[in-house]
Write a structure and sequence with these properties.
This protein is of the alpha/beta class. The protein is built from eleven helices and twelve strands. The protein has two domains: 51 residues, DNA polymerase, domain 1 (Orthogonal Bundle); 292 residues, Alpha-Beta Barrel (TIM Barrel), CATH 3.20.20. A hairpin with a 6-residue loop joins β1 and β2. The longest helix has 16 residues.
Amino acid sequence: MCGLTSMSIPELAGLMEELGQPKFRARQVFEWISRGKRPQEMTNLPKELRDKLDTLHYGGASIYDKRVSAKDGTVKYLFQLEDGNIVEGVLMSYHYGNTMCISTQVGCRMGCAFCASTLEGCIRNLEAGEMLSFIACAEKDVPHGDDKKRTVTNIVLMGSGEPLDNYDEVVKFLRLVSAPEGMNISPRNISISTCGLVPQLMRFTKEAPHVTLSVSLHAPNDETRDKIMPINRKYRTAELLNAAKYYAEETGRRVIFEYALIKDVNSSERDAKELASRLKGINCHVNLIPLNHVEERHLTGVTRRDAEQFASWLQGYGTSATVRREMGSDIDGACGQLRRKTLQRERKAAKER
């Protein structure tokens, strides 16, 4: 059986029936879980039911460590799962609200050349309820001043892992987190990022809530993309762009193309011109990212000035583009960095004992 945190109201209703409880208890339990509460904290349930629920697998997370940026207030979390694994999350403040970036896997198996998340491999997929727990943890850690409002207004599935490689649990998470009886975060305020699993993306277009799709593109052609993103050897750039165009047309939502600028790899004016040409006809925007430094990777990012120049080239060729605001750079805010350093430190300490 999946953890309590991963159960929908109909699934909880079935559980209540098994436990000899009225079905209306399912909604009560769901509401408590959405607030990050464990069975003994569910005060409107009878003690007998709380005790029974306490014996079941919960499937939540707790805050293992956190760092707060002195520059912009960004909060970087390490969440600990019930099996002892740790994963990252980031809470970022913007003018429109607070965005929570969450992981979808413990590690990643996509092997992108510029990313720290994949260096430890993929340990396992996250359950829908574990992802939900990350939001609840942040809500309790940084409560909103108004009890009737949420701290987390937006969610991006851009942490460790490839969301569409954990397809079923991610789709279930989207349904749980947007449920009116729970967190009730609109799909329009949720973004999901994929490196290009084309068959899953085609399914996602039909089966999942219509969230904002971000595509980790990072190159204008197969030759360059093959070198930095192994997934491109299976699903070519043209296939991915066609799938992204299909998503935009079917959902009416603009697609975001993520593009990490790497010095002497994908950042020339020629690259910008080719990229703009490839994206013509797609309702999209390009989000340019000055590459974060990863010690184990021998790649160099461009300067902020160079990134702005690349954006200007794209705009000149008729493609909407902006440079992402850098956040949490002083606290290992980039994907996978803090988790990897923590694991390395703990391994070193274990050897010295």
